[in-house]
Write a structure and sequence with these properties.
alpha/beta; six-stranded parallel β-sheet; three-stranded mixed β-sheet
């Protein structure tokens, strides 16, 4: 039976009302961000929770990881797993890279179906990985030579911080390009700091990770000194927590020290890698950093002793053996 004119009018009013409600809900969910298609390459400890936050904010997210199984949790939430970096670029507007090191990024650029084989012109690459400033500048030049926009955005924080969207993003690159991407950074972290041109964000990441390494070793040595003197470890942990030396980092790891089990929030092997970058950067800058040199040696020893896949706080176990 055909609708009367009045029934037809009411139908379209209801239809447009419903459509408007959906659009308002999507705008609220994404904080008004234009719903561009996002690509994500690299689904390690940090990549998964960060990509998941973007997906849960309402964005279409295409994902690629060399180990395909690591895409499963994202696909379950509606992300699309693609077969290559080239496919991610071709089907995305903004592409995030979260990889372990410079060689891994080089491989993604240069492999047979990598970034350099795709139509990168007009796309934006956001490199969240921790690499040297020189490497970041090199990747920026390679991307921009073929018409892409490159932003470096290494992050400070571990897995739990990433899950909560409380990371700090350390930015380097063009100010206007960064401004256009800040709504995405706001989904990923609590603060984003623009340090300047390409390379400066990576320099900031090495600086803060040096402090992280020194604090980790300092807590370990404090506990070992007290224990060797016959003090109860639980009371030592209580002391640190009640003192001016208490930090969110310590609060997040004190159970690890108490139980001597170190599930990786930030794997020790990555800290050892970063300390290698830090000491090389200090040499390049003709800067004497004796604590960095010592920390590099101790974390490398811990890596060689088999603690690489444990949390960085497992430096405690390595020092305890000596």
């Amino acid at each position: 039976m055909p609708l009367s004119e009045s029934d037809e009018a009411r139908f379209f009013v209801r239809l447009w009302t419903a459509a408007g409600r959906v659009l308002r809900e999507r705008a609220e969910k994404t904080k008004g961000v234009l719903l561009m298609t996002l690509g994500w390459i690299g689904l390690g400890h940090m990549g998964v929770p960060m990509a998941l936050r973007l997906r849960q904010a309402g964005h279409q997210v295409n994902v690629y990881n060399r180990t395909v199984e690591k895409t499963a949790s994202l696909v379950k939430e509606g992300a699309v797993a693609l077969e290559s970096p080239r496919a991610v670029v071709e089907q995305s507007d903004i592409i995030f890279l979260m990889l372990a090191d410079g060689p891994a990024i080089t491989a993604v650029f240069e492999q047979e179906d990598g970034l350099l084989t795709s139509a990168l012109s007009g796309k934006t690459l956001i490199n969240l990985s921790t690499i040297s400033p020189e490497q970041s500048i090199m990747f920026a030049e390679r991307a921009e030579q073929i018409g892409a926009t490159y932003i470096e955005a290494p992050v400070s924080g571990s897995v739990g911080v990433a899950e909560a969207g409380q990371l700090v993003l350390l930015l380097g690159g063009d100010e206007q390009a960064i401004a256009a991407c800040r709504p995405y950074f706001e989904i990923l972290g609590k603060e984003s700091i623009h340090f300047g041109a390409h390379g400066t964000g990576s320099s900031a990441k090495l600086a803060i990770n040096l402090l992280l390494a020194l604090v980790g070793e300092g807590v370990a040595e404090t506990l070992l000194l007290g224990e060797r003197a016959g003090l109860d470890k639980n009371k030592l942990l209580q002391l640190i927590g009640a003192s001016g030396m208490n930090t969110p980092l310590f609060q997040g790891k004190q159970t690890m020290y108490r139980e001597e089990k170190f599930p990786p929030a930030f794997p020790l092997r990555l800290m050892a890698k970063d300390l290698g970058l830090i000491t090389e950067e200090a040499k390049r800058l003709t800067l004497d950093l004796p604590l960095a040199t010592t920390a590099n040696k101790q974390y490398q020893n811990a890596l060689e002793e088999g603690h690489g896949d444990e949390d960085m706080a497992a430096i405690y176990l390595a020092l305890k053996k000596n």
